[in-house]
What we know:
Blueprint: H1 2-8, H2 13-29, H3 33-36, E1 45-47, E2 50-52, E3 56-58, H4 69-73, E4 79-85, E5 98-101, E6 106-109, H5 118-127, E7 133-138, H6 146-160, E8 166-170, H7 185-202, E9 208-212, H8 218-229, E10 235-238, E11 259-262, H9 263-279, E12 285-288, H10 294-302, E13 307-310, H11 312-317, H12 320-326
Parallel strand pairs: 3-13, 4-7, 7-8, 8-9, 9-10, 10-12, 12-13
Antiparallel strand pairs: 1-2, 5-6, 6-11
Helix pairs in contact: 6-7, 7-8, 9-10
Amino acid sequence: xxxxxxxxxxxxxxxxxxxxxxxxxxxxxxxxxxxxxxxxxxxxxxxxxxxxxxxxxxxxxxxxxxxxxxxxxxxxxxxxxxxxxxxxxxxxxxxxxxxxxxxxxxxxxxxxxxxxxxxxxxxxxxxxxxxxxxxxxxxxxxxxxxxxxxxxxxxxxxxxxxxxxxxxxxxxxxxxxxxxxxxxxxxxxxxxxxxxxxxxxxxxxxxxxxxxxxxxxxxxxxxxxxxxxxxxxxxxxxxxxxxxxxxxxxxxxxxxxxxxxxxxxxxxxxxxxxxxxxxxxxxxxxxxxxxxxxxxxxxxxxxxxxxxxxxxxxxxxxxxxxxxxxx
Length: 327
């Protein structure tokens, strides 16, 4: 498997990402996946009325369009989060837009919500064979501004609600201009109110999370948390990538636009997670950001996360990271 991972990394990051996932899909369809990746005993975890096989799941971005739900689910994850999806298909930002920082176990991306649109994702959700928990991460199209941006979230929410075990509202990607403005007090209140009304109209009673940026002020995160606590929304997903790159050792990457993930994000995202949990111990939290080892996973749990997501750790270390973390 190390040889295969090394082979994939001969290609550009986006190409290697596609080749790796497509290879998993072929192995799954030919029923060879479990020969390469042995299964292990599930340890069911009850959270918010849902039964998770274990606490480790995929973060949004790994499978944006839900094209790989069945093969990823067969690897042993406790849950999957697909997306981020937008109402209309969009190509994302110009290439190159993903950069490996191999020596720092990190990635910088400025993808820009490239996806095939919500209708494509819904079709895949309808046809999935995977019986585990699948959450859906929703966003707004790049061209949408003001109220239309909020409308985009409502469009996505309405279309995925029937097929999602939980929904995550992504307001924190640094790669869609102005999206992080939704963290402001007025904007987040308007968004939460709109989502709440939509959930009531659809009788959607499953969990709803907001995925936040690790770069916002303490006051901003407190405001968002307090709005959630008095709404029908559930909790926070902490956190997305960071635009701060001062912790990088290689100076040539420090001025590169895009969100930083992987090992350098671990401390920053976990400090935010711990801070939110200490201030609002009754607020459910999913932890994400920088998980590369079992120790990182445990640190997220100890800091207040009920569930933990990985992305960069998976693409760097391959599927073996699942067993390494859960064993």
